[in-house]
Amino acid sequence: MGRPAAVSTAMLQCSMGLSPAPLNVLPVSRVLVEGRPAATVTDSVPLVNILPFGMCSSPSNPMVAAATAAALGVLTPMPCVPATGTPWTGGAAATTVAGSPALTAGATCACAYGGVVQILNPGAVRTTEA
User: Euclidean distance between the first and final Cα of the chain, in Å?
Assistant: First the structure.
């Protein structure tokens, strides 16, 4: 059985971020799922597809590390700037959109600062991808 399809406005959460953020899918493939652009595993571009998650608490983030050092070692979250340069993992095995595997619930994307981005709500409720 397939998993729900991820579409534009799906809600994402980073394990190091403070708040959820929507997935932004550019309508370049012109494939709609339940009236919204369908996402693919390549929709992982920081600040284009994956928006900031409020404040970042990863010590690997240079801004967090600098603020923490200035606070004498007290972890000091700083504004999130996603660093997701790799495609999502765990997308659809058989369904493709414009030549790339479709993005589905359960997929994850790694941030260079140590966070893991996951899909909280894929946006599609009736459509599943195999």
Answer: 7
> Mean of the pLDDT values across residues 68-83?
98
Q: Beta-carbon neighbour count of residue 126 at 10 Å?
A: 8
Cα–Cα distance, 78 to 83 (Å, whole number): 14
pTM over 0.85, yes/no: yes
Show me where the domains of the chain are located: 3-54+82-129
pLDDT in the model for residue 1: 61
pLDDT (0 to 100) of residue 2: 84
- pLDDT at site 122: 97
CB atoms within 10 A of CB 66: 12
Closest CA to 5 of 116, 82, 25: 25
Q: Which helix H or strand E contains 11, and what residues bound it?
A: strand 3-14
Partners of 68 in beta bridges: none
What sign results for the dihedral spanned by CA atoms 1, 20, 124, 91?
negative
What is the rounded distance in angstroms from the CA atom of residue 61 to the CA atom of residue 18? 14
Which residues, in sequence order, are bridge partners of residue 7? Answer: 38
| H or E, element range at 26 | none
Average pLDDT, rounded, for the chain: 95
